[in-house]
Design goal:
- InterPro entries: Rhodanese-like_dom, Rhodanese-like_dom_sf, Rhodanese_C, TrhO, TRHO_N.
- Its EC number is 1.14.-.-.
- It comes from Corynebacterium epidermidicanis.
- This is tRNA uridine(34) hydroxylase.
- This protein is an alpha/beta fold.
- It folds into three domains: 5-90, Alpha-Beta Plaits (2-Layer Sandwich); 105-238, Oxidized Rhodanese, domain 1 (3-Layer(aba) Sandwich), CATH 3.40.250; 265-308, no CATH class.
- The protein contains eight helices and 17 strands.
- Strand 6 and strand 7 (109-110) form a beta hairpin.
- It binds zinc ion (2 copies).
- Residues 255, 257-258, 260, 279-280, 282-283 line the site of one zinc ion.
Length: 310
Amino acid sequence: MQRLSKILLYYKFLPISDPKAVMLWQRELCERLELRGRILISEHGINGTVGGDMEACKEYIKKTKEYFGKMEFKWSEGSAEDFPRLSVKVRDEIVAFGAPGELKVDENGVVGGGVHLKPAQVNKLVEERGDDVVFFDGRNAMEAQIGKFRGAVVPDVETTHDFIRELESGKYDWMKDKPVVSYCTGGIRCEILSALMKNRGFKEVYQIDGGIVRYGEKFGNDGLWEGSLYVFDKRMHVEFGAGVEDPGFVQLGHCVHCGTATNKFENCGNLDCRELTLMCPECASNPAKRVCGKPECAEVVAAQGVATQA
Ligand SMILES: [Zn+2]
Ligand SMILES: [Zn+2]
């Protein structure tokens, strides 16, 4: 009989006086349980995704809670095979905002972060405050091309490192007195982002418990979320509710070449380019068209085409 496998996703903000010791313990624990995945540990907490045998996952949760106390683990489909190896590392930050000195954490989590809202409370806030409420996307801008909260502000962010520059640019000062709901995939980024915003004069900042994932599970395509959710695994995107067939589903993404509706990102035909670009299946399967839009990539791809014909 095939054994059941699962993936666990989790994080917890908690002061850790000796991250190295915790890292060594976590590595030993995962090796013993034959779990694979990625775990980051800093003096502010832990952020991990591991996969393996169901029973091993349960044992991992039990042991990890013995040290970290109450924390939430999200179960997802998958196994150890979804990861190339086990990686357990100490970093300055468990999410790389480039602000390790600014983040304050105590036994209750991040100090000075945004107010946590459950998915239903997000809707209630919008019912009460209407258009005054601003949704602020806490992900990389690219992810919002296929899905975001209705009317959300999407900052010009390629990596999490860009947020501080964006927040201090003045572009978003107009929302400093408004209710701002920061959101991200699973909630961890906004734990930090919402604190960084408050430190920079945004007065009324919220974050969504469990992020887009929990909101989408609760409201599907019938709430304030529109489109697909970008995910960092081989699926690339997921939909809520009945998916793209759902009458409430809004397709936000379009092929950069022909405009056909799509929610699938593709790699650029220039193999040195890391850009993910929305392309329909037809354009993606045409080597001449499979480019991200940067002129230098178009040149490389054109040269490849010439080489193939020759
Ligand atoms: Zn196309
Ligand atoms: Zn490119």
